[in-house]
Design goal:
heterodimer, A: globular
Chain lengths: ~260, ~270
């Protein structure tokens, strides 16, 4: 475990150094992400403009949900590029080079490159929205709430990693997953709004079958004191279940891989 | 055969070559429409949202259904190609031919958009029929005709706008990400995500003055009945003004840029 933590630190440092080498690119990357941020902030503006309540949640509470969505987008963007490159590595045979490395293949393929410009923009904006919403909604700040919230964010990160790795593994069987990528990315945007605005069946699907709603809604519900015990169990259980599924599929996918290119 | 007509036909062929990609892009753009449809239905059901947005429920729903389609239709992708031509010397092959580079790009762009425009019109007929049945949208042949004309002007406006932006490649070193940022920001400020005039009088004024709203928000608001004929007339004049403005600005930048251009590479 310590070896992987050290390796992650080294890979992060390497990624940051290579990104800072081309500073204009780094700044441009931040600018692109700020453009996307504008889209997300439009939803916050609409909520305040209309002054709508979703159930018992006021616009301030809704801002927390959107803030978590923005923050989680930042975390996902940190390693998202690795997922999109899997198909390319399979097609060109570049994967061969990593098969012989003395580390877990899944680890080195999926957590090799870290993209900081996208992370920084989203993490900063997301944190501001969460803190502002928390303060404006008058929610209590206690050790339990903060620690529980951070723990659930950690669970959400594991769930995001597992849930979004699974469709990318299709690259081992089919040539192009571009269209699929677009659809998966679009599904992520369902978290633009708290899941309570969707119908009951959509909520059930989004919580239990394709648990995208668990990722951004459950940490928010926890700090508002609205996360029921069985939902807390699912918030911890779902990442474990989906990680196991992703791990099994990964092993199956690698077994299916036949070296290409040279 | 007229070279521009030839390029126009090539544009149509190019667009049809990537029809699966186009269909997939359109499919993925359904999701934001679903999200917004649910969101607006919830907001209008729970609050007096019409009072704060200025849009009736049927107007906002038609806007949601059509804005994404119009935004996709007017979108451009040639800025990166132009940057590549300028940076890598690809421009040389156009300079020695008896064609104007801007005219060449415009013909190609319009050719690429024709299949999309036809598809959009088919989808729009379905959406408008659905809106007429479900939201009680009343339509006249005049309004439909005005919508189509405004779409053509919007296409021209967005072309000249991006053509002008793309010509900055003569002066800027690294523009790839810059174009990405501009594209996203323009989608937002053109009303491609949400109508911007829901944010109050000041925003209404800004969207009327600036050119961006005339590429998406204006055509959609013609069809959903938000604008009266006077507003439509003023809007058309503004569209024409901005088309002429960016057309002239593009020509000036092209001439200035060519003076700086150093033919390199192939």
């Amino acid at each position: 475990m310590r070896k992987y933590l050290r390796l992650t630190g080294a890979l992060m440092k390497l990624s940051l150094m290579s990104q800072l080498e081309y500073r204009i690119n780094f700044i441009s990357g931040v600018m692109v992400e700020m453009g996307w941020m504008l889209v997300k902030l439009l939803y916050v503006a609409v909520v305040y403009r209309i002054g709508v309540n979703i159930g018992t949640f006021t616009p301030d509470h809704i801002m927390i949900f959107i803030g978590i969505y923005v923050l989680m987008t930042g975390f996902y963007m940190l390693y998202y590029l690795n997922f999109t490159l899997i198909g390319h590595m399979v097609q060109t045979g570049e994967l061969d080079m990593y098969l012989v490395k003395p580390v877990s293949l899944q680890y080195i393929i999926t957590l090799r490159q870290w993209s900081f410009p996208m992370f920084l923009t989203n993490a900063t904006a997301g944190s501001i929205l969460i803190i502002a919403g928390w303060h404006r909604a008058g929610l209590p700040v206690s050790f339990v709430r903060v620690a529980g919230f951070l723990f659930l964010l950690l669970c959400s990160n594991l769930l995001t990693y597992s849930l979004y790795l699974i469709p990318n593994l299709l690259s081992f069987w089919i040539i192009s997953t571009g269209g699929l990528d677009n659809i998966i990315a679009a599904m992520w945007d369902f978290n633009n709004m708290p899941c309570m605005i969707y119908g009951k069946w959509m909520q059930r699907i989004g919580i239990f079958i394709l648990p995208v709603f668990v990722i951004t809604n459950f940490p928010g519900l926890f700090i508002m004191g609205e996360l029921r015990p069985f939902m807390f169990v699912w918030a911890v259980g779902a990442p474990v279940i989906f990680f196991i599924i992703a791990r099994l599929l990964w092993k199956r996918a690698v077994k299916n891989y036949s070296s290409a290119s040279s | 055969m007229n070279p521009y007509r030839c390029v126009f036909h090539m544009g149509i062929e190019k667009s049809l070559e990537y029809r699966v990609n186009f269909l997939l892009t359109m499919t993925s753009s359904i999701f934001p429409v679903i999200i917004q449809t649910i969101m607006w239905t919830y907001f209008y059901g729970k609050t007096d949202a019409a009072a704060s947005t200025g849009y009736t429920y049927s107007q906002i729903m038609i806007y949601t259904l059509l804005a994404t389609l119009v935004s996709q239709l007017v979108s451009t992708g040639f800025a990166w190609q132009m940057n590549d031509d300028i940076k890598r010397g690809g421009l040389n092959k156009y300079l020695v031919r008896p064609v104007h580079y801007g005219g060449y790009q415009l013909s190609s762009f319009l050719g690429e958009k024709i299949p999309q425009l036809l598809m959009l019109l088919v989808v729009s007929v379905a959406v408008i029929s659905f809106s007429a049945a479900v939201f009680g949208l009343t339509l006249s042949a005049t309004r439909i005709l005005l919508f189509i004309i405004s779409l053509l002007f919007a296409l021209a406006l967005n072309f000249f706008l991006f053509y002008t932006v793309a010509l900055t490649s003569f002066w800027l070193t690294d523009v790839d990400q810059f174009f990405g940022t501009i594209s996203i920001v323009l989608v937002v400020i053109s009303g491609g995500v949400l109508p911007l005039d829901i944010f109050g009088e000041k925003t209404v004024l800004i969207t009327k003055i600036l050119p961006f709203g005339y590429t998406t928000q204006f055509p959609v608001n013609i069809i959903n009945g938000r604008y009266d004929m006077q507003a439509v007339g003023v809007g058309f004049l503004c569209q024409l003004f901005w088309v002429a403005f960016f057309g002239i600005l593009g020509e000036v930048l092209w001439k200035k840029g060519l003076q700086r251009y150093v033919a390199v590479s192939g």
